[in-house]
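Continued from yesterday's entry.
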Amino acid sequence: MWIVFPVLPLPVLALLAWPALAQTPEEPPLHAGSAPSRYEVRRAGEDAYAFTVRNLRYETFGAFDGERSSPRLLTVVTDTTVRTDSEGTEGRVSVTLDDLSGPQPRHLATFEDPGSEGTRFGDRHFVTVQYGCCAAPNLFRLRFLPTGAPLYRATGPVPTGTSAFLEAPNARAALRRWAAFDAGLEPPAPGTLGILAYGGDGGPVQRLRLRLEGVTEEAFDEAFLGLAHGGTLAWVQPGQEPGSGRPSWPVQIWVLNGGRPAAAIGGFALRLSDGDGRPVAEIPVLADRLVPEGATLAPGYALLPEPLTAP
């Protein structure tokens, strides 16, 4: 005897299974939140308008400490104002970092910088950009994200300005360094093209003033604009192509006898080039410091020690 069972269509089977699925309780979230963004449009004269925008965004990511990853919440608030009768954007970027590994969010850092955009690089760095108006250069401010400490201000191209990043993963302990060039000095100093800074996650450890002398005013302005808008920095290692890296992807420099202290690190150089790719200065790195006395400089250029100040 054959027993025939009816074959039900898939939608009917799904409906029959739905009560069983619906009975499974959903685990409540560990953390949740929301906040509004807003905009305003106002008249700013007879034929002009002013646009004010507040954008709020959340970013969640894992912060790795070498053994495990912990959840983090980044809250970024960007306030900008633009007018139809003028160029440029006025703005500020406010950032808050919280640890979400416990039952309640734990505040880690808060900071605020002028600018109209902000970008997180990995779990260690945050860059705010203030776009220049007319011939003024862009200004970039880099922060050490876990503490909010300022690291550098730089001019140059996006995304991080004229800058370079390196890591010596086999040093004692793993060493991270950056270099940045800032041509946005206010007020401008005669003969000075900008400040070259070198440092790590704790802030700058060295600053050098780049000067150009013995040239016409036109030649000085051309050199300034080339460095301010298109300058590049790169690490130069023997037998390898120069590289700049990024905050979340630095150039790796493997140190011989990796157990030795970080202060013994050297044997490579930092190269600063103008917007056309022409080298302006190549500075050796010895004992974890730039050595301006040993630099190779283009004609007319000079590097002078500069006191350490806040970025």
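--- second protein ---
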Amino acid sequence: MTEDPPLEDISLPSEAYIALRCDLLVIGDSIITDRHHASGGNYDPTDPANQIGGTIPSFSLSGWLRHGMERAIQRRGGTACHPGEANANFKKSDVYERDLEDGYHPKGACRERGTPCLLAELFGELGGPPGTLLRRPIRFSPVRSAVTYEDGEAEGHYRRLSRHIASRNRDDGRQSLRSVELDAVANLDGTWYLHFREPSPASFGLLAAAVDFLAERRMDFMHQLGGARNNGAGIIEPTLCNPLYSTRELRRVFNRSRKPTAAMDEADEEWADTVRPACEKALQTRIDATDMEATDA
């Protein structure tokens, strides 16, 4: 069995890429299209022939990823930093206290003890130090050849969908009583670009564990993304791209006409057998150290 290398010998990049595939993504009004650049007022968002691209902001994606990271930490015996303030006006009574009994510690409590937990370090706090994990938005285009995967872009097809609530009265002939419009992106296939301002083995270990968890639970309502989940939207198939790949090798992953090279196979073996186990070990050490401080406090 290959021994884990010393942590100081692990060289990790600042960039990380999560490959995302989703048949249908609906995140309310958060999809920003660039149709105004070319439509001249004649654009029909319901036309299946449109060639409009746009941007998916990272807010919903960040919450989805953080949820996976919280569960990854809790699976390893640690507590996750709560994302909300203790004095926030929650819609349900005692929700904060119930969360603290279910694998969370109060927001910022870890930092007050002197050592912030990994979640507090990565995501930061409002009014406090900024996080070290930069989550970029995803630009999408319906033209695959126009997608630059190393910039965190994806192929995706935007439509504005209409949902109608019809009368059930036979005399009304299913007359529409109310309609709701949804902005949706279908056949999303690309990358989400993350940047670590301070990359560390523990942070990569947590990212890898979170992506595995979210892939495993992609059919779980709680771990899907956005709305219309009962209609099949928000089922994300995430994969962490090998951090040891070069930019050229990353592009090759999404080139359907090319197979992995021998160098890519070697990088996969190094990541799976050597680097990732060391990152997971660093993650567990960080979780144990943070929770030990909480116990001693």
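Residues 9-296 form one domain. The CA atoms of residues 164 and 229 lie 17 Å apart. Will compare against the first tomorrow.
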